[in-house]
Amino acid sequence: MDQPNLSTMQAEVDRLSTNWRTLLDAMPEMVFLVREDGGVEYLNRSARACFGDPCPEQVAAGLPPVCRDCRDSLSPAAAAPSVREAVLGSTPVEFSAVPFIGYTGERLIMLVMRDISQRKSYENELLQFNTSIETILSQKISELEASEVMRQKLSRQLNSLKMQLGHYHKADRMVGSSRKMRELREMIHQVAGSDATILITGESGTGKELVANLVQATSGREDKPFLKINCNAISDSLLEADLFGYEKGAFTGAQTRKIGKFEVVDGGTIFLDEIGDISPHMQVSLLRVLQNGEIIRVGGNEPVQVDVRVIAATNVDLAQAVKDKKFRLDLYYRLNIITIDIPPLRDRKEDIVELVSHFVNHYRLAFDKEIDFVPKSVINRLLLHDWPGNVRELENLIQRAVLMSKGKMITEGDLLFDQDPRMEQPVRNGFDLNGRLGSLPLKEILAEVETTVITETLRRCEGNVGLAATQLHIGKTALYDKMKQRGILPKVLRKPD
Predict the structure, then answer these.
(1) What's the mean per-residue pLDDT of the chain?
(2) Mean pLDDT by 10 residues, the chain (497 residues)
(3) Domain 20-115 belongs to what architecture?
């Protein structure tokens, strides 16, 4: 009776064991049954696929430490087992452990593991990526810092080059890129930043006011008041009152105190054009301003402190004026701290093409003309001219030419040159041929001869064009055409009423 019962029980145990192993083999996780001595009792199919069967020594050697880490989980009263990580052989795993009693009563530890090699690979890649990002960012930041240093260096070099090459400031209205103009602009940028008095010299029509504008615009007083005074356009008494102001009762009509231009422009800049024409009395008053920074109002006794930068301009040779006792030597030295000399147009004729283009564009818009071409013959004619009136004379000529042109281009017939005021009027008894030979081409000599003859004839006829045409034996229309070409105006030759 007992024997069949034992057989039945053994069969039941075998059945349960088989079912238990079948269940574990069906699990995707790796399962180890480990004895208390660290020996491996069982590996399921997933574990065998990963590590092999029998279990490799290096893997088996790593199991006891894993079991020791999980010692607390062997107690049935312990909390739910935690998930931990370890490396078996070379395989990273994630595992949990639970106590297990074998069917024969032995105490076992069941380790349920998952291969996390792929996850670890992703984590390593992410770590490397983050490390790479930090490295890249650090590298880029270093590059940006280096670029900023380089940018600042290049910016300084660029500013230097702009000055050397005559960079056009937004307030620069001067036209021309010749060497002399580049040197002029460089000089302006070099001295504009100081508060020193500047004397601008040059012939009439060279653009002294444009230079003054650029000096002020590139100075530290750019956003401060800027006034321009033509000293030659105001009488001496009015100029003093205008510049320095006056006290009540200083003269007839002075009903109240009035501050002058120097006080109005305090903190800013004042431009005194034609400074060489002021009277000795005004020279003394101006010297006080330059020496002590103070003015005295007309009719007053108390000095008034002012902070004004003075820019002066003249076409007078002040050194010669000092020799001629027409200008004070001490004032000359005060004005002559920094001198900017503007070259005449005849010394920078390479700028004529640029100037012609500028003026043609300006006046064709002003007069609504469709001029879009200036032939080379016209340019050559302009290059041959001496330009005693400088840029102003060229502008006047182009203005007339644009206005008088009948087509879309300027012709030589549209060029009406001004008479050189420095030259004497044509002599009545003949033409100075010797003075022209060797210095002028035949075409210009003949043009001057014709101009002399027509002008003298009109003078004798007191500006009567019809009578002059009769005496010259040409038609009145033809004479008008020649007068237009030569810039001869009959009205200036008429006898005054």
Answers:
(1) 81
(2) 60 69 80 80 84 78 70 51 77 80 73 84 77 72 78 68 57 87 91 92 93 92 92 83 88 85 94 91 91 90 92 93 93 93 94 94 91 89 90 92 88 77 47 61 79 84 81 84 79 54
(3) 2-Layer Sandwich (3.30)
* DSSP SS3 for 158: helix
* Closest residue by Cα to residue 243 from 339, 233, 253: 233
Query: Quick check: 265 and 226 in contact, CB under 8 A?
Result: yes
Q: Decide: helix, strand or coil at residue 218.
A: coil
pLDDT digits (tens, 9 = 90+) for 426-464: 444 455 665 566 666 777 778 888 888 888 888 887 778
Would you say the pTM of this structure is higher than 0.85? no
3-state helix, strand, coil in the chain (%, to 5): 50, 15, 35
The three-point CA angle 291-235-226 to 5° equals 55
What's domain 188-343's superfamily in CATH?
P-loop containing nucleotide triphosphate hydrolases (3.40.50.300)
CA 97/CA 157 separation, integer angstroms:
73
347-493 maps to which CATH number?
Answer: 1.10.8.60
- For the chain, the straight-line distance linking the first and the last C-alpha, in angstroms and rounded, comes to 170
Is the separation of the CB atoms in 251 and 300 below 8 Å?
A: no
Contact 158, 185 (CB under 8 A): no
Q: What is the pLDDT of residues 346-372, one digit of tens each?
A: 999 999 999 999 999 999 999 898 888
Q: Tokens for 358? A: 């500028």
> Distance (Å, rounded) from C-alpha 342 to C-alpha 220?
23
For CA atoms 155, 160, 163, 167, give the dihedral sign. Answer: negative
| Residue ranges of domains in the chain | 20-115, 188-343, 347-493
Strand order in the sheet with 226-230: 226-230, 269-273, 309-314, 198-201, 338-341
Q: How many residues does the chain have?
A: 497
The answer to whether 229 touches 272, Cβ cutoff 8 Å, is: yes
